[in-house]
Amino acid sequence: MPSNDERYLGFLISDSARMLRTVFDRRVRALGLTRSQWLVLRRLDRHPGANQSELADMLEVERATAGRLIDRLEQNGWVERRADPSDRRINRIYMTEKGERVNNNIRPIAHSMVEEALAGLSDEERECLTDMMIDVKRRLQTMVLESQPQEETILEVENA
After folding, report:
1. Contact predicate 71/120, CB 8 Å
2. What value, to the nearest 5°, has the Cα angle with vertex 63 and ends 23 and 49?
3. Are 17 and 82 found together in one domain?
4. 115 burial class (0-12, 13-18, 19+ CB within 10 angstroms)?
5. Do residue 77 and residue 115 come from a single domain?
6. What 8-state DSSP symbol labels residue 79?
7. Which pLDDT tens digit goes with each residue over 106-149?
8. DSSP SS3 for 87
9. What's the CA gap between 3 and 5, in Å, rounded?
10. Coil, helix or strand for 2?
11. Range of the domain at 143
12. Rg of the chain on CA atoms, in Å
């Protein structure tokens, strides 16, 4: 493990992700939308009519957190809930025209931010970085699934 934190890959990834979030938040602040809210719009753009549970899974957040995000988006007129025709207990979430306009306005902001961050890298280097990050993400996703506590383990700890 390197002693120089500036070259420690874990810190570099974490710091880069944090700085990307900070730059993004500053650039979209005038639109009155948070990064988390935009992520909901992006998922709905790809998966119109997703329900709250599906959005929570896509965003990797709790259902209550997804519900609060949807509430705020709905209050701003960016999404609407519609009852599922086959199961009235479920609401499907759809972007409104206003939400689509906001989503479309943010895309170029996000794209230019990433382009600026990757300036100086060749197309080949970008492709290689992307491929490596996809591999790392897949391994981390597997690690997350493998590290989920089993119900039996939880009961053993609680009864100990």
Report:
1. no
2. 85
3. yes
4. exposed
5. yes
6. E
7. 989 999 999 999 999 999 999 999 999 999 999 998 998 888 77
8. strand
9. 6
10. coil
11. 121-160
12. 19
